Amino acid sequence: MADKTLIEGIREALDEEMARDPRVFVVGTDIGPRGGVFLATQGLYAKYGPKRIIDAPLAESSIVGIGIGAAMHGLRPVCEIQFADFIHPAYNQIANEAARMYYRTGGQYPVPMVIRAPYGGGVGGGLYHSQSIEATFAHVPGIKVVVPSTPADAKGLLKSAIRDGNPVLYLEPKKGYRMIKGEIPTGDYTTPIGVARVSRAGADLSIFAYGMMHHFALQAAMEAAALGIDAEVVDLRSLSPLDTEAVLASVRKTGKALIVYEDNKFVGYGAELAALISEEAFQSLDAPIVRVAGPDAPAAPYSHPLQDYFMVNTKTILAGIRKLAAY
Amino acid sequence: MPKLGESVVEGKIGRWLKQVGDAVREFEPLLEVETDKVTTEVTATVAGTLLQVLHADGAVVAVDTPIAVIGPAGAEIAQAPAPAETHSRTVETVQSRSPLAARATGQSWVSPVVGRMAAEHGIDVATVVGTGEGGRVTKKDVLAFIETRGVAPAPVELAAWEQPGTGELFRPSEEQPGTPVTAAPDVSQTAGETIPLSAMRRAIAEHMLRSVSTSPHVTTVFDVDLSRVAAHRQANKAVFERDGANLTYTPYFVAAIVAGLKKHPSVNASWADNAVRLHKAVNVGVAVALGEDGLIVPVIRNADALNLLGLARAINDLGERARRRQLKPDETQGGTFTLTNHGASGSLFATPIINQPQCAILAAGKIEKRVVVVTRDGVDSIAIKTMCFIGLTFDHRMLDGAGADAFMSTVKAALEGWA
Amino acid sequence: MDLETGAVADPPAETLAEMYAMLIRARKLDERCWILHRQGKIGFHISGMGHEAAQIGIAWAMRRGYDMLHPYYRDLAMVLACGMPLTDVLLGSFGRQGDPSSGGRQMPNHYCYKPGNVFSVSSPVGTQLPQAAGLALAEQLSGGDRVVITCVGEGSTSEGDFHEAMIWAGVRKLPLVVVVENNEYAISVPMRQQMAIERVSDRAGGYGVRGVSVDGLDMLASYRVAREAIDIARSGGGSTLLEARVVRLTPHSSDDNDTTYRSVEEKIALKAKDPLPRVRASLIARGALTEAQALDIEERALIEVDAAHRAAEAAPYPPNAWALGPVFAGSGDGHG
Description:
The structure holds 3 protein chains of 3 kinds. Chain A has helices at residues 6-20, 44-48, 60-73, 91-104, 134-138, 151-163, 212-226, 244-254, 269-280, 304-310, 314-326; strands spanning 4-5, 24-28, 53-55, 76-80, 114-119, 144-146, 168-173, 181-182, 197-200, 205-209, 231-235, 238-240, 257-264, 290-294. By secondary structure, chain A is α/β, with parallel strands linked by helices. In chain A, the strands form 3 sheets. Chain A has a 7-stranded mixed beta sheet, sandwiched between helices. Chain A has a 5-stranded mixed beta sheet with strand order 9-11-10-13-14, with helices on both faces. The N and C termini of chain A lie far apart (43 Å). By secondary structure, chain B is of the alpha+beta class. Chain B has 3 domains: 10-101, CATH 2.40.50.100; 112-143, no CATH class; 215-416, Chloramphenicol acetyltransferase-like domain (Chloramphenicol Acetyltransferase, 2-Layer Sandwich). Chain B has 8 helices and 19 strands. Chain B is extended, with a radius of gyration of 29 Å. The two termini of chain B are 54 Å apart. Mean pLDDT of chain B is 81; it is low at 82-107 and 181-185. The chains are: A alpha/beta, B alpha+beta, C alpha/beta. At the A-C interface, α3 and α4 of A face α5 and α6 of C.
């Protein structure tokens, strides 16, 4: 089976779900004839027409707001925000409306919608095409947050998200769109939300990561193996709901936890993971919990060397692995 | 100074029980008055603030002389109006009046702006010197009045939605009133059976509770000699049967009630927020028991337009359909008076609960033969008569004992004199 | 509406009487809520007094219960018109279990009544506008003929969501009527500090949408204008921005102290504009109601409000578990 890219996994999921369920439609800017700025919807406009692939005006709050209305009506919108950096105007509709609608109506009006957004740095995008926003939304009860790191998971998770029946934020590691290649199983399959995956079993320490960082963590783990350090790598895939059992089981096994995320360190997603591990697996810990994360500066700079210095990468992860292993 | 006795012409102020500036409630003791016979507590006839004491402790004052002024706090006392006609008026009052009331006093016409300004400043227009045509109080007059008095606007009675809030949103819940009370004691744990409430039971419970907490209930009981009614019924039962009506005692009671309401319209009324509304229509409701389920009160609309046959038919029909639960919602609405025949179940007399928003309810007790004393030509003898106690439970806000008894006397007369 | 002549026939006399009855029910219920708040029995109330004539006129122009309504917190009369029982409104005010809007989770007057196709009122203002556009879009995509009516205050037209929703309405010719109930105050901020224009409806042209203003104190005028807008929307003619000029007879909400920004004279003048007496007078004048019928309606409404009050006050509180959920539809709640 030929390797496919992450973006292909996303496109296949959209295509198949739209063919399977006439309620599914996609709304966002430039997704129609242009096929999306990352070509996520390439070919879909020609196939499904303007009633299923809808070009929206440049108004993010309404892209989500429209989606909420359509979802309450009974359709299954997939709302694309062109870059996660531009999701902020829609925060009100996402956090105050979509996430709270089911609760506040006592279950009368569920909001089955997916919000897709490319996130993350390393693409020369500067401050406003590189942001990670998962912590802000994982924090909000009422919305699920998932991040695929492989083409197979990209397709499977997106299908699950579309079928979930609740608001799901689906974050796409844009650096990996074409860079990450892998096998995509044939047939109709879904990747369950709320389930992590151990991508490399190991005994000496556990590395928890997601998105692009999962790949760098795997690479670093392979280099660490050459140094005699046997690292387990867990691809979280689902940030909320989190597969707490998988996380705790891994820590109980290895006794050491390294959490990797490219977002700013302070109050980032990894902080929650660290708190969870120390609360629930304290007696299994043989070392302090370590986080390798982005610096606390306002997002990624453009200039190449600055960006490289800013971003978490295989080297910085390996340094963290070695330090933790030596503890 | 009240007239405390038939031959009393003056009274000595013993001691004032209230000081200037004190708040005074209606019927609250105000001062002690000594006469050569007795020392009496004199109570205030209105509520307000004691603004002025005109005669001090120990003063001897002729009956009907003003001795104190009670009014709204802060109001200044203008010239005291002439002493009232009745003996019982001992204190003068300065009351704020709504523009409507000002117009209704029979004074010369009060213009809208004068009425509004008077209301806002708590001024009795009657106390303002009028320089307009025919002595009319003009806007200028009111302005001048205000200037010379420097009156602060009297607090006008504001509706709940006209009262401003605190301006502070979302104070801590602990500071907010209306936090839930602890749950009612759990009676479900004692041995027994819990019966869920039917909609009718719930509705009855709500209505009864509300009625009792709305109206001050007072009952007056009369007994009625139903001999003539009984005789009439006996004679006409068959005829009515042929005309499709089962003739019970009920139509007679309704007819007598109608006579009573026509003669005493103050009983055919409803309390309406500081006014009494007299209804033109005479719509008499007749309570129908529905066994364990409860009761319902279908209404005979315009009962005054029906003769005995008409009433009998209406009562049959409504009662029949009530028991079969086939009444239309309209048919329990719009009643102005209610009759309840509790006597049918053996009760002698009762004090039922008023069917809001009506003024009164008449309870007809058990109709039975009783021994009564009959006086003819000054000679007493014992007779056996068909008697019945009828009770009127009425809302004492709008009806007093005298009015209630007058009504009942008419009802009694109508029944006893049936022809 | 007669699509050829554009003429809208007035409702018949029995319907006018029904409309009047609903108007009075809304007012009496509203008054009762203020009283309950001042008695300390409910924690909050935000009112529609002064808006009722517009709301009832517009509601009767809808196919109530069929068309979709995405209202805001002053729309008491509208939601009652769409079938919400008086008791249910009070269950929300008292925060009781049977509250259909939210089971006691939301503040009072955050209506939601699914059986009447009434969508959930939120606190951040204007959020309903893009959602209403979404409902309309979905209806359009599904080939349905329902119209979406959504309501806001004039202050909320300053929100970005208003602008964004209007774009969709214009570009897509959505079956949407955006009702702006303009009472000239956003809490304490007067209209002249909210916008530089005289009429909210003047904005419509900027979006390629029909804009209409109506005297919202006139029930029948509101009805006619709404009927026209809804008929146009239903026939695929596109959206209307319908501005109804109303008055806010009360402070913004139960906590507001409007004496800090409205003078006594202004409040007296405002009270004189109360739409209810003039609706009553005009219905009697045209023979749709007699004085006796009007009185009967008013008495009955009070009785209904009393019954609803007692029922709601006696209703149980929600179980504690309702504070924690439901968060997600289907299985699996929370963070895992």
